[in-house]
Amino acid sequence: MGEPTQNHNLIMVYTGHGKGKTSAAVGQAVRAIGWGLKVAFGQFLKRDNQAGEQKLLKSILKNDFMASGIGFYRNKNDLQKHRDGALRLLEWAHEKISAGYHLLVLDEAVYALKMELITRDELQDLIDKASKTGTSLVLTGRNTPEWLMEKADMISEIQEIKHHFQKNISSRKGIEY
Q1: Tens-place pLDDT, residues 109-134
Q2: Crossing angle of the two packed helices 52-61 and 21-34, in degrees rounded to 10
Q3: Can you list the domains of the chain with their CATH numbers?
Q4: DSSP 74
Q5: CB within 8 Å of 175: residues ≥ 6 apart
Q6: What is the arrangement of strands in the sheet containing 65-67, beginning at the earlier edge strand?
Q7: What distance in Å separates the CA atoms of residue 83 and residue 123, rounded to the nearest whole number?
Q8: For the whole model, what pTM was predicted?
């Protein structure tokens, strides 16, 4: 098995139908920041100033945080607007990788892929570039495709066992967003 290497970038995926994928990604980013690593955190689909973690991450990361979404994607007529936001985030992500960041979190990347806001080739290009520069990636979202699971070095599946929504308890600021 040999000695563990510190020089290999990692592809880490938080997936599953349970609550906590973004929270896990935020925790991963906080850990890296705590050790002085250069971290960038991007969110597909989510509007800026929509969730509590965004306020904290923006205060810490400044321009190394980006939420490129325009909100819920409910209508195929809005595909281009959502795709434009996703493309802005991809461009930003490429810049961060080129600048030698240690960790790049792409929250909701798997959703964006599933919704065809980004393509497999676009995500693969980002993964390849990160591999060449040594940037580790964190990707989140449900229904991770098989090809991405094969590429990943770590996959954590978050499983819903019970959720308060089942009791008709609505989402709360600071808990769900």
Answers
A1: 999 999 999 999 999 999 999 999 99
A2: 20
A3: 27-163 (3.40.50.300)
A4: -
A5: none
A6: 65-67, 39-43, 103-107, 136-140, 11-15, 154-157
A7: 13
A8: 0.92
